[in-house]
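Hi! If you just cloned this repository, the fastest way to understand the data is to look at a raw example. We've pasted two of them here, unedited. The first protein comes first, obviously.
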Amino acid sequence: MLSRQFVREHPDDVRDALEKKGVDADLDRILAVDEEWRELKARGDDLRHERNEVSSKIGELKQEGDEDAAQEAIERSQELKDELADVEARADELEEELEERLLTLPMVPDDEVPVGETEDENVERRREGFDDRRDLPEAVVPHYDLGEELDILDFERGAKVSGGGFYFAKGAGARLEHALVQFMLDVHREQGYEDVFPPIPVNSKSMEGTGQFPKFVEDAYRIGGENDAEYVDDDLWLLPTAEVPVTNMYRDEILLDDDLPVKHQAYSPNFRREAGEHGTETRGIVRVHQFNKVELVNFVRPEDSEERFHGLLDEAEEVLRRLELPYRILEMCTGDLGFTQAKKYDIEVWAPGDDMDDGPEEGGRWLEVSSVSNFEDFQARRAGIQYRPERHESSEYLHTLNGSGVAVPRVLVAILEYYQNDDGTVDVPEALQPYMNGQEVIEGSQKVGESALGDGEREA
């Protein structure tokens, strides 16, 4: 969240951020509440000072035997006490309103972020791995058709068990998901990340700390309640990303300078309602309600955050480099920048199976597999995460960064399509073969039930 002082001193910057990010918040009301709150705080200080002076005179007047003046002082002290109580009560009301309204203000974009209104104005910074692409079949089969033909992805049974947006990975498909997770964790351990296995349910305070709430409450899976109900601190939600529990590990704590940087990685299943609700990506596993991901979360000193941002990007890219998958780097423009981010780069892998309108000249499409974000002190301020530069100095808010390292289903899509062979089999990337007991080629699973029979066999 933005500090009161920043909002008070830089209203034009905040108003500009609201416009660029397309966020609807009543900044004028926030400024008015802040002004009235400060006036009341000053009035309260004056009343306390006067009451202390009056109280100190009461004893003196009684010692002097001036009972009438002493009684007047007592009555004035009571008046001041009553007025102070009213002032403090009103100040507390404004304080609560101000805190709630500050949560509706987005992070101000970094000055270097390109200005734009939509994702079409994001800036492609570079492409990697396109110059030495492997030879592909003349017609690459999309992953959703190939997955069913090989019987390694089962969408019909996933929908039967859990509804649309869920799937079964089977046989080599399941092994490939497991292999990707273990491979990613090993890569990031080499980069100095400490493993964290977080709880899957998170409370509302945690969702608020990382910025998911109150803005995105309707996108979350609530445990045992309706999404349109007002959330409270002890509500539990299925995590949308491991960013939430891992960042909130240190909520309301003060870290030491010697602790930083803290680099955590966490594998988790993730749950999001919004996936697949926009009329796109409804086939396959590009947009699903449950997906696996390895998340990278960093806690750093403010002066180190820009350098760590680029380091985090490189660490996430390493997964795709070792898998030898072509990808590109996009810098988000202001209009496509998230609510909480000061700066964000997306890593998009190339999947050649579907020839999409927004795909590259080579055909296929881009799939976002990681968003690498610098939140500066936005999340730390919301979650109360500070550090102490020196043991004798006052604490300060640190900076948080995170990025997926990376999202598993979309990488699986890219592997099934990019490593596809003319005979419908799929080569296992060399980096993953040790995680699949040396398996080099995915040839499919044995189908089970009447669905495995031909039409004539079923009729017989």
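Ok, and the second one:
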Amino acid sequence: MDIILYILTLITTGSIAGFASGMVGVGGCFIMVPVQYWLLLGDGLDSTLAIRVAFATGLAVTLPTVMTSALGHHRRGAVDWQTAIPMGIAAVCGAATGGTIATFLPGQVLKTFFAVLVTLMAVRMFWDVKDCMVCPPRQSLSILLFIGFCIGNITSLAGVGGGVVLVPVLVLLLHYPVHSAVGTSSACLIFSSAGAVATYLWYGLGVTGLPQYSIGYIDLVQWALLVGTTIPLSILGVRYAHRCPARILRYFLAGLMLVVGILMLIP
């Protein structure tokens, strides 16, 4: 692929993913991973290696991006740290477990898992769009630890920050207002992304056939181009999120998820 087109594609993708990360509390991997995967295939990388590199690199971009998003939401009082911290600690353990499993699964299995997960959650977000205005958020340590562990597993197995699952869970099951769910999700994703990145980095050491400038499964060229745009755009996304009606946020998230999920299901 032409190097200029390659760079422009990643910069554009990073801009969209960064804005989505700040606005709806997701890591942006569900936008970045498909593009990274297709670019890596175009460079001749094996499909199994390509999906692992896309997962690992996307999560490595997610980490500083969600840190920036979480800080912005925290300043606006939209992060429930009593929920985010226990979930995040459990998510680290889950991410290590899921990452270990993912490094032994065929690429097609990982790709399909990613696509089905994103598509189902998109449908669920469209199906139930009413906030519970009188329901207080549910907080139980055992429930939070269980959710966090599951989110960590999903983060590694599906190559997403986990926000595409966590935001709906916080809203639909734990009765969090959308804006609070977005902020709390961003904070939790700091932990899950860190755990997943460490796992992919470790298992990728010594693997042959990876892109030239890589550490483990992390492609440093893609990482640099993406993170340079996701961080500043996530700041803009945070600002817009707190000016946007909750229902619009949910429709925006669901629409993006649906499009990406369907595209990844196409052979």
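That's it. A detail worth noticing about the second one: DSSP finds ten helices and two strands in the chain.
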